[in-house]
Amino acid sequence: MLLRDTGKKLQTMASPDSNGREAKDRSQFADREIISWEEGDKENPHNWSHVQIKRNRVLLTTMVLIINSTLGSSLPSMAIPYMAKAWGVTAQEQMPLPIATFLMGFVLGPMMCMGPLSEQYGRRIVVVSTFSIFTIWTLACALAPSWPAFLVFRFLCGAFASAPIAAVAGIIADVYADPVARGRAMAYFMAGFCSTSIGWRWTFWIALIYAGLTFIPVIFLPETYAPVLLARKAAALRKQKPESNVYAAAELEDRDLKQLLTVVLTRPMRMILTELIVSSVCMYLALVYAIFYMSFQAFPRIFQDLYGLSPGVTGLCFLPIGGGCVLGLPIFFAYDHVLQRAQKTGKAWARQEEYRRVPLACLGGPLFVISLLWLGWSARPAAGVPFWVPMLAGVPFGLGWMLIFMALINYLTDAYELFAASANAAASASRSLVAVVLPLATGPMFGGGWAWRGHAACSRG
């Protein structure tokens, strides 16, 4: 559909975050036609069929892509003692650094580059380029010659692994217009002996192999960002008919370096500071995420130091967390069914937008707290409590964590559709920042003995 470029129509060109920026002199666009999607246009990702191979391929690609990021963050958790021994690292303060440096990259990447740039230049170019560089730095981790070099490589891995975290939410918002279908797609998206048996470097070789396999579908990932697709369509029309004066709205916006630095790259930070939804979600997810990463250091202390389990068996103690995460999916779909039925029957509460996502977080929050209490009170080998009792606390831990994240990431995506990547970049960076800081305190907290002294006092009581 071609829209004649009147002053009223040009209002659609303004980005929601221009915030006082002087608009271009609109008179220079008076003779131009602005292209937009036609009703039912098959080139519009929102109109891709639910059974169409292209849409399913995009969803599957984003799922396997995000595993590289989540796998990479916690990859060396059980291998750290072997890396430290290989390089003669003895200071306990340095043990969290392989995970902390990766998360520091998670702070930088989404905020400064990945999310905002995907809204400026398109999803595909950002995802493919950053994933290629992430694969190179994963190789560098496997070949690292020293501890400092390894930490630098881990930081760079995290910076480039952060691209899918921010961009995938935007891709799903691009492809799924219907909130129900989008929520289900996000649910699917959300949905250790190696280090002790074949050497710590093989943890990164295996990650590299998986990244290489993932690269195959990533190469064929289509562009989904509507402004970029419309710009390509307008350029094709101008090439086909040189006399035409057809443009996409995005082509008529400022795209100079000043606009990139002051508007595009600062968008996530401005959203944290000015958007209450973003700032509230960021604070809560940051706390939950930090506790999740503290468990990577707490579990070895509980199950190795207290219960005397081997490192390999201790790694298996994380499995209930994964089981709890899997349990989050049927709960998500069950609530989705309840909500749809309430909307069809005209229930007043079902018409309120926040009830589409937030109630799942209200269920996940208490479950998360209960799991921490369960773990803390039941880890008592001296009282005859077997190790599997605190280990099972991982089930409500993983379930609560999954429900919180599915609810609030979906909430951000619903609220900021076109700018979902920047909103999720803000959330990713803020939670990663807290996850860097708090786990560094885990060792001193447990090492100081206060936790075990308090635990012993409770046991005597």
Automatic annotation (TrEMBL):
Indicate, by first and last residue, each region the UniProt record lists as having compositional bias (Basic and acidic residues): 19-28
Matching PANTHER family: MAJOR FACILITATOR SUPERFAMILY (PTHR23502), MAJOR FACILITATOR SUPERFAMILY (MFS) PROFILE DOMAIN-CONTAINING PROTEIN (PTHR23502:SF74)
Region Disordered, residue ranges: 1-28
Predominant location category: membrane
Which membrane topology describes this protein?
Multi-pass membrane protein
**Gene3D superfamilies linked to this entry:** MFS general substrate transporter like domains (1.20.1250.20)
Which species does this protein come from? Answer: Apiospora hydei
Pfam families listed in its UniProt record: MFS_1 (PF07690)
User: Where would you find this protein in the cell?
Assistant: Membrane
Name used for this protein in its record:
Polyamine transporter 3
Q: Which residues form the Major facilitator superfamily (MFS) profile domain?
A: 58-461
Alphabetic keyword roster: Membrane, Transmembrane, Transmembrane helix
Q: Transmembrane ranges?
A: 58-83, 95-113, 125-145, 151-173, 185-202, 208-231, 272-292, 312-335, 355-375, 387-412, 433-452
